[in-house]
Amino acid sequence: MQRLRLGLAPYLLILPSFIYLAVFFAWPMGRSLQLAFVRDSQILPVLSEPQEDADVVGRLPMQIEVAVVDRLKTEELLPNGRTRPVYWFKVVGEAENGDTIEGWVHQKNLFIKSRTESDTARVVSGEGAKEWTLDYIERMVNDYRFQEALKTTLLLIVLILPIQFVLAITMALVLQSRLRGNTLFLYIYAIPLGISDLAAGLVWVTIFTQRGYLNTFLQQLGLIDQPYIFLSADRQHWMIVAIVLAEVWRATSIVMVIVVSGLQAIPHEYLEAGELFGANLWQRLRHIILPLLKPSLQVALILRTILAFQVFAVVVAITGGRVLTVLAYETYRWYDPGDSGFNNPNMAAAYAGFIMLISLAFALVYLRTVRTQEEAARE
Amino acid sequence: MLRRKMRSLIVLLVILVLTGTLGAYAQTGKVTFMSTQFNTVEESDKARAILADFGEVDFVPSEEGPMIDLLKAEAQAGSGTVDLVGALHGTFPVLAQEDVLFDLSDLLAEIQAEYELPEAFVELGKLGTEDYQYYIPWMQATYIMAAHKDALQYLPEGADLNALTWEQLAAWAKNIYDATGEAKLGLPVAGLFHRFLEGYLYPSFTGGMVTGFKSAEAAAMWEWFKTDLWPYVHPQSIAYEFMQEPLLAGEVLVAFDHTARLINAFNERPEDFVGFPAPAGPAGRGFMPVVVGLGIPFTAPNPDGAEALLKYMLSPETQARVLKDLAFFPVVGGVDTSGLSAGVAIEAGAVAAQANSPDALPALLPVGLGARGGEINEIYRNAFSRIVLNGEDIQTVLDQEGANLQKLLDETGAPCWPPDAPSEGACQLK
Question: For position B85, which CATH number holds?
Answer without folding.
Answer: 3.40.190.10
